[in-house]
Amino acid sequence: MVKILLFGAAADAAGTREFELQLSDVRTLGNLWPLLEDRHPGLSPMRDTLAFAVNGEYARMDDRVSPGDEVAVLPPVSGG
Amino acid sequence: MVKILLFGAAADAAGTREFELQLSDVRTLGNLWPLLEDRHPGLSPMRDTLAFAVNGEYARMDDRVSPGDEVAVLPPVSGG
Amino acid sequence: MISAAQRPDCGAISTFIGTTRVDESSGASVEYLEYEAYRPMADRKLEEIGAEIIERWEVRHVSIIHRIGRVDPGGASVAIVVASPRRGPAFEASRYAIERIKEIVPIWKREVWSDGYVWVGSQVDTRPLSHEV
Amino acid sequence: MISAAQRPDCGAISTFIGTTRVDESSGASVEYLEYEAYRPMADRKLEEIGAEIIERWEVRHVSIIHRIGRVDPGGASVAIVVASPRRGPAFEASRYAIERIKEIVPIWKREVWSDGYVWVGSQVDTRPLSHEV
């Protein structure tokens, strides 16, 4: 199981702020993405603008995601 | 009569913060300086560091000083 | 925040306050701003920025506060206070902090208008198209 | 000063506070600072700096206060607040203000030590020579 958190415009696009994905094996973030898209197709158009964090730290698409991890879907930040 | 104001290290050097000079004709600031030095020789060594104001505005040595004016002797400023 | 930055070994305190600016360029106007954060990560990134500053500049004190939730127009959303012995590093570090916040801290701003809202930076909004005219 | 600078048409407030730094490099230490001004001219020069800033940058609000008289170590001697729609001009204008104050405003600082005083910037002091060792 992986917990997916969504923020800002990504939460809007998905229609949810949080969901869980069944995940029994270790994957890269890049291999996890199709599962996210599949659950929430509204995310697809914003793909190129998104960043990701695994367990609270920015992660690249080839970083690993293991069962129990927390994955955050981050639109372009706009603090300040 | 011209009123001379002195500030900071210049007041220290002259031993006074204010004095008056008899002045019946119009002079340049450059021509007034020897009279100041004469009254307060302690000012001489700091000559090159001093700036001057006539009636509250920075003045050059060829600017005119007339009877009734206020001349200020300004060491390097150190505000802030 | 500012008085906590006053130290005898420092001569300069540079403060930056980001306030919610309101452009009235279109017909409708912004009613308020709402900030959302990925909380534990945002707090950690703010701390990282403080650590980067202490490492790069002659700075003795940094504090950064970012508001989350609703902020009214003209209200403060972020405050940065930097103290340094000299003014150059104080200004540079303070500027660096706000640039870095806008780059790496997971916080998102939503403009709430009378007719919908806009996620700033995401080109995603719920307002009717007319406002683009 | 800061709340007076909060305006809906501005997104950035940059503040600079100059505090009296104390170097304990020599044996004695500074007890306090004392600022003296050529008052009407100093006030006018501060206003001029504000006008220069409004003319050169996209800045909507400038306020500058300089303390005169005794200031204890670590205490604030000058405060500058600048508000702008954008952060770049706010930082630049605030930096400009402090540089310009140090250039043209007729104010003088005297460090009062336990064993004499020093006019800062004038190489004139009453302290015994030993402190230069």
Structural account:
The complex is a heterotetramer, with two copies of chain A (80 residues) and two copies of chain C (133 residues). Chain A has 80 residues and is α+β, with helices and mostly antiparallel strands. Chain A has a single domain, classed as Ubiquitin-like (UB roll) (Roll). Chain A has helices spanning 8-14, 29-39, and strands at 2-6, 18-21, 27-28, 51-54, 57-59, 64-65, 70-74. With 133 residues, chain C is α+β, with helices and mostly antiparallel strands. Chain C has one domain (2-114): Alpha-Beta Complex (Aldehyde Oxidoreductase, domain 3), CATH 3.90.1170. Helices cover 27% and strands 35% of the residues of chain C. Chain C contains two helices and eight strands, in the order ββαβββαβββ. The N and C termini of chain C lie far apart (43 Å). The mean pLDDT of chain C is 89. Strand 1 (12-19) of chain C pairs antiparallel with strand 1 (12-19) of chain D.
Q: What oligomeric state best describes the polypeptide chains here?
A: heterotetramer
Strand composition percent of chain A: 25-35%
Specify the CATH homologous superfamily of chain A. Beta-grasp domain
Largest interface: C-D, 30 and 30 residues
| Number of spatially distinct domains of chain A | 1
Mean pLDDT over the full residue set of chain C: 89
List the total number of helices of chain C.
2
The helix tally of chain A amounts to 2
CATH-assigned homologous superfamily of chain C: Molybdopterin biosynthesis MoaE subunit
Question: How widely separated are the two ends of chain A?
Answer: 34 Å
**Helix content percent band of chain A:** 10-25%
Q: In CATH terms, what is the architecture of chain A?
A: Roll
Number of domains of chain C: 1
Let me know the number of strands of chain C. Answer: 8
Q: What is the N-to-C succession of helices and strands of chain A? A: EHEEHEEEE
Q: What global shape of chain A is seen?
A: globular
- Uncertain parts of chain C: none
